[in-house]
Write a structure and sequence with these properties.
By secondary structure, this protein is an alpha+beta fold. The chain has one domain. It is built from 1 helix and 4 strands; from the N terminus they run E-E-H-E-E. The strands form 2 sheets. Strands 1-2 form a two-stranded antiparallel sheet. Strands 3-4 form a two-stranded antiparallel ribbon. A hairpin with a 2-residue loop joins strand 3 and strand 4. It is elongated and about 40 Å long. The two termini are about 15 Å apart.
Length: about 70
């Protein structure tokens, strides 16, 4: 599942609200493959791997600036 929060760029010259993309799923291999694709050219904030609240979690800012 992919979900996003945020808005399009403003035409008024004011900064746009931040945009966040969340990828969730039940198939670990599928989510890991999505992470690998998103991580290409990205700034990794937190490496993808096990966490206390989920079997796997990671955070990055992709090559387009999306967190």
């Amino acid at each position: 599942m992919v979900s996003g929060v945020g808005g399009a760029g403003s035409r008024t010259g004011r900064p746009s609200p931040p945009f966040f993309l969340s990828v969730r799923g039940d198939a670990g291999d599928e989510v890991a493959a999505l992470w690998t694709g998103l991580a290409d050219g990205a700034a990794v904030i937190e490496e993808f791997g096990p966490s206390p609240w989920a079997p796997a979690f990671g955070m990055l800012r992709d090559r387009f600036g999306v967190t």
